[in-house]
Specification:
This protein is α/β, with parallel strands linked by helices and 271 residues long. The chain has helices at residues 38-44, 72-86, 98-109, 131-148, 150-161, 181-194, 196-200, 206-211, 228-240, 253-256, 258-268, and strands spanning 3-9, 12-19, 24-28, 49-53, 91-96, 114-120, 215-221, 245-247.
Length: 271
């Protein structure tokens, strides 16, 4: 069972959850929050003290200034504060998607706090040869959100990311069944208006990461071959000089293939 807590950080109040006991392991996304990692946290809580959280501005983590942009560096400082709050001198960390950018920034800014940083499919578009075109595509998604709303923006975002849209329409790209559409709309607004640009333009200092004390693992979903995050992850692994680690499933394998994903993660962090 998870223990739910809150933590005040500069400009925000973070919602976080703690499960299990043992070495500290943090699981995070962005914009995905604690609920998306609940199944994986449960699967790992028998061996680790697992900490999950809602990133600032998402779901149950309100911000003081709704117009403040969020960056991987800012989110990394929040995670360092979480480590202090739970009494973790060091922890293993897994970040997926935007959360992978967070853990890379954490390894750069707070290297003494991290043992192994697992970056699962970070959307580091600046590492691609067509980075300028990708910046323009991101701006088009953001402009679409402001002009036409979240449904249209999600369609463009998912198409550019490489997902097979098939018969998907704007309604299908709306809130997941069973979740609050009002909350989903608020999270989408936060993502498109204040998070997407900063995350996709983040470029980690790979030379510093290679020279630093943190062991960095780059994860790629076995079913993510058609996604842009497969390419960004491959590029990151090449710059770091490490072979990528294949995780079960695709971009959300921690949800779709939870038990298998947890087994690979244990191995990746040496558990």
């Amino acid at each position: 069972m998870a223990t739910t807590r809150t933590l005040d950080v500069p400009g925000a109040r973070l919602h976080y959850e703690v499960r299990g006991e043992g070495p500290f392991l943090l699981l995070m996304g962005s914009p995905m929050g604690a609920a998306d990692f609940a199944a994986a946290a449960d699967a790992l809580a028998g061996e680790y003290t697992v900490v999950t959280h809602d990133p600032r501005g998402v779901r149950n983590s309100p911000v003081d200034d709704p117009e403040q942009d969020t960056t991987p560096e800012l989110r990394a400082d929040d995670v360092a504060a979480l480590l202090d709050a739970v009494g973790a001198e060091k922890a293993d960390v897994l970040g997926s998607s935007g959360g992978a950018a967070t853990v890379l920034a954490l390894a750069e800014r707070h290297p003494g706090r991290v043992r192994t940083a697992v970056a699962h499919e970070p959307p580091l578009l600046e590492l691609l040869p067509e980075a300028a075109e990708q910046r323009a595509a991101t701006e088009d998604v953001i402009d679409t959100f402001h002009r036409d709303g979240a449904g249209a923006a999600w369609m463009k975002f998912m198409a550019n990311a490489g997902f097979d849209m098939g018969e998907t329409d704007e309604e299908a790209a709306g809130p997941p069944e069973g979740e609050s559409s009002e909350q989903d709309e608020a999270d989408a607004a936060r993502f498109f208006a204040h998070e997407l640009r900063g995350t996709t333009r983040y470029r980690p200092d790979t030379a510093a990461l290679k020279a630093g004390p943190v062991r960095v693992v780059v994860g790629i979903g076995a079913d993510s071959g058609g996604l842009i995050t497969h390419r960004t992850s491959t590029a990151l692994a090449g710059l770091l000089g490490v072979p990528p680690v294949e995780f079960p499933g695709g971009h959300t394998g921690f949800i779709d293939r939870t038990e298998e994903f947890a087994r690979v993660l244990r191995k990746a962090i040496g558990g």
